[in-house]
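protien #1 (seq + structre)
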Amino acid sequence: MSQLKQETSSVDRKLFLKDIVDELLADGRIDNKQAEQFLIPARSSTLEIHPLVVIAQQEWKDKKPPNKILTLEALTLWLADKVGIPYLRIDPLKVDVTSITSVISSAYASRHKILPIKVTHDTVTIATAEPYVRSWENELRHVTNLNIERVIANPVDIPRYLNEFYSVSHSIKRATNENEGQHIPGVVNIEQLVELGKSGRLDTNDESVVHIVDWLLQYAFEQRASDIHMEPRREMGNIRFRIDGALHLVYEMPTPVMAVVTSRIKVLGRMDVVEKRRPQDGRIKTKTPNGQEIELRLSTMPTAFGEKLVMRIFNPDVLVKDFPALGFGEKDIAEWNNMVSVPHGIVLVTGPTGSGKTTTLYSTLRQLAKPEVNVCTVEDPIEMVMPEFNQMQVQQNIGLDFASGIRTLMRQDPDIIMVGEIRDRETANMAIQAALTGHLVLSTLHTNDVAGAIPRLREIGVPAYLINATLIGVLAQRLVRTLCPHCKQPTELDPDIWKKITRPWKINGKHSFYAPVGCDECRHTGFMGRAGIYELMPMTTELRHNIKPDSDASSIRKQAVKEGMTQLRISGARKIAMGQTTIEEVMKVVPPDEEL
């Protein structure tokens, strides 16, 4: 009989290495040679390590198809199936830390190596990696008056999240108690406490506050968040992460504590801590657990219940990618490189906020920034400090706007100038002058597509003849979520819908349509990461003939399509056909009834 099936409810029995190895051998997951390695009695050093962890360290290949590596996650899933207990991969984004840490103490959970995961009105779900250690069940049922539901979880995740959840909960409770324990009328934020100047009162350097901020940042890095939102409400404030373009509620924190945490972050960002009535901007440079430098851009906004703080995370590895990683096709890369290799003129990148324009420009500038080339930028704000080029920050309070910034850069002997955004006539005119005097100018413009860039420039006040003389080309882009490679499944697509989104073109090659499923790797969203879809319009002789004072975007678009321009939705359709995204994702950002 299987050793793992011989469960005894009265006596605790831990899993032993030999039992696990024997079961893996009996199931045909490993061979005799691998099993013999664990018959040697010299394994006393592994007694305190969970046997699944020891086996996972060997990185054996599963003898059963598809012959993948027996990772710790795969072994944990195998164990759960073997003992007949549901498997759960702990997703910290879905754990209500406040409720689960109130069920049992940290000491009790540590002693029994268990972790509460979910609490309802009559049941608590407990994660364990020891299915036959059950003495804690009756004790917990008696103390809490709740039903116990056990799940099997990764033996490494349990102590990791146990420490994380209880540590953060303790820090927040301590901060709350210290903040509320002063019994001072009207005192609900750190500035008032600091002004009182009394020792022992909560301030931004308090250990609890420092720990909460450190946890928040490291947690965001681990979850691949692009933004952290701290939103005060009447009693409990919300902390939300934006991951792959979607916001996720991560934690609820007492509003007075959130005010102190916000103040701590403002101190780190060299912002005015006392000023809460007006918006402020700041910047923090920090490191991930593996030592990688990360920059965060801070922005505060006064709301009805306090300051709302948004931290945008700029990871150099994410922000500055090569063009294939951004989603460019081979044709796109060739056309884009041709456009930015022209010695003088203007190249525009268009699209709404959050469509990846800055990422494209930074990746391009890093490619262009050679030792013999002087690359300068004027930005508002500087998204990412890059050592390869010279960056200047717009400061409206001292009269340094985009136009005056370009004027300054013109005296700095630049070869390439990047302007954060062309917003007004003065900035547009200065960019035109820079292009006319022999500089390559890259900038962004808020229009929906490439053809709309030309009427927009005319609306700003740029004459048609100057657009004709300086514009090299326009790139429009959007971001779509990409399917999780671990769980996406083939699917059929309605031919009528496919024709609607691809008309009047035909997508050549093999079509592989996939649908999102959801798994632990993608947090059950079915998507992991984002990629760009693009349309490029290099200025040709025929297109320049269409740039007239009375020409509209429709005539320019028709001419560009006639010359072979790949539209945004056709670019998206190609990614659908390659199995990278879904038709719903493309239709979110590019309507299928877009005029041709």
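ok now protien #2
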Amino acid sequence: MHKIYQLGFAIACLALPAQLFAQSPLSSKANLTDVTVYNGSAELNHQARVRLPVGTSEVVFTQVANNIDPNSIQIGSSTSVVVLSARANRTASAEETKSVAYTTQEGIYKTEFAKLTKLKDEVEAEGSVLNLLIANQKISNEGGSTTMDAISKMADFHRTKYLASKETIAKLTEQVEKQQIKVDREKEILDEMEGQNTAGAGQLIVQVMSSQAGEQPFNISYATPSASWGASYDLRAADVSSPLDIIYKANVTQQTGIDWHNVNLTLATGNPSQFGSIAELTPWSLYFQQPKAPTAKLHRGALSADVAYLEEVVVSGYNSSSYTTMDENQLNSTFKIDIPYNIASNGVSHAVTLQEYRHPATYTYQAVPKSDEQVYLVAELIDYEKLNLLPGSANIVFDNMLVGKTYVNPQTSSDTLKLSMGRDKMIAVKREKVNDLSQTKTFGSSKRQTLVYEITVKNNKKSAVHLQLKDQYPLSTDKSMEINLEESSGATVDTTTGLLTWDVDLKAGETKKIRFSYSIKYPKDKTIQLY
């Protein structure tokens, strides 16, 4: 039977005489087994075994995180062990500051460098042989005379040895060049991992009292702010008649000072309160919402919420979804991954695939030419709440082509989630002011200005499309300013926001023109800023 002790229960034990712990501290490596990562923190669970004597002991558990919330430490052992106190220590030995990944890469680099050194030595040795042959070309005998037969034999010998030596040097030089590339590559990787060498693991110094001698198990749990994860997505669709494939991913980063090697990984939404003190409630007051002034001016991102997302489009491990179990409760959602993961303590984002969904979608082409003369394909999803999505960036893949990026924001009050699927260059849109029809006239003390705009759309695709166009006319902010929509070409008009919406059907290769106009009547001694 194991017991779990919170640090708060052991405060009184801090007054115990120091001589009780005068013996040399015991040391044990805490093996990391499970990690739960939240949006801004992580809970790490370790296991260790320590041979304890009877009485009190100080145990130093190494290879724990270097930034630990002291209020979150939990240590459990057998019924014969009482945990008196525990404290975290950021200082670690020089050897412990080398992560497993760094040490492994350092060994690879040293091995490849040793091979390079050996090859260079062989080149140097063969070069010495070649120099020896060149320096000893004199042919003579004891009598001072040399026969032609001797000269011929010696010439053949030197030629053979010389050519063999040159060939050997050439081959070794080629091997040196290739090995140098390997060494440079491994050194580059090692340099990139340098941060892991200096991050430094932490320690937990624990005072215990044991009623019996022998090896005892320890379960260690704590929270650290040095890890987090965020959501990202791949949005894939084959065509406008296909459902939308949503690949739900997590980008996990950690700088705890220890590598997570073959750990059981769980990802959870939210930030748990159990790591610190219990939350307290304060009075909750309700207020009437103040009405927002309608937007009279259209610029990038200034359309109503149902079209603002169009401006968010960027213009220009393992696939573990099959091994992920999702659990949802009233507080958060958790994704438990049933395959072990390795995540280095270097702050580099590590992608983990959580779930893959196929969800029905309705596709529409939309454009807001006053802000951007581009046409975007938009996927609209209903019943998306059951997907438990989080805000995050997304890669857009349409018709097997990466077409851009967008942002998924499921935290909307709308019952429809709209996802931009990127631009479609095969549909052209152009918005122009019709100067011949736009005019300004003065009547007594008033001035009347009329503005006419024409939107031209052309479908260059080989199939028919349905396009939704949006524009707007301004709203008056003064009782002396009178604004009238003169022509709308059959648009759906929202008089509270000034938004105009056209649903346009275009055949393959078809071009259509849409015209709208509005007038502004105001005192002639006033000036209006239209843009």
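DSSP finds four helices and 29 strands in the chain.
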